[in-house]
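Chapter summary example.
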Amino acid sequence: MNLASRLIALGALALSGCVAYVDTSALVQPQPGIRLPDNTTVVGGWLAENHTIVTEDGVALYAALFQRPNARGLVVYFGGNQFTVGRHYAAVLQSYASTDLDVLIADHRGYGASGGSASLGSLLDDAVIVHDYARDLREYSGLPVLVHGQSLGSFMAGEVARQRSLDGLVLESSATTAEDWVKGFVDANPFVRRGVVEGGLQGQGNLALMSVLDEPLLIVVGEHDRTTRPAMSQRLFEVARLPPTMKELLVVPGAGHNDASAHPSFAAAIVRLLARGDRGMEPSSRVSPVAGG
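The structure predicted for these 293 residues follows.
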């Protein structure tokens, strides 16, 4: 059950009003999955190559590297809370089909074909290890390596940006704080009068990160995203302490929580993100004309 469903269920149990207590179990929901066949061509003409990334505590993470000839860089992609490589890689590749970038996607710890037991803290730590592994691949020496996180994955991408200086950061369907995130659901549910964020979920989100970023930033959100509402992405964009030429907010017309990067405008925004690094951050900062919610 996702966070929205959990809050709605809690509210329906107490018509007089109730308090919804939300912890990391609403955000981290491991899913089973499989490894892809190694060294095979998949949809779109990408060559899929399997990798194993071993964490400091000995957990083996499964990752797939998708390559095409003459790539000009690499994207390290972190998916949402029910994402696995085997089920969802094709949608990610479609988002990057018109770019000249390869893509590396790893199953979160405890998800898909990765080992270990998932927790929010371990997923954040693992994200840095996955990024460093990708950065060290000799095929991409001297080429830009972008980090893209969607929903839960945006927390992971943000953690990488907090610890490393990146060539570019993509935050899709992200949140300011877990408290803001839960409040949005509470405000929309007349049966729940208050939301309480507990445990390791407290304070999570990308709001604090915005004051320390030093890389080109692309924030992406669907116009109709009701899980991580556009107003949160708007705030992240506004408070990011970056020169205007280093950041962009893309509000995708008609999109929801999980399909913002499927729109053609996303690939065009990735080209602009790369250009910010290639040309000394020349392109102008811009905001999509579509109003956020």
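To summarize the output: The longest strand covers residues 46-54.
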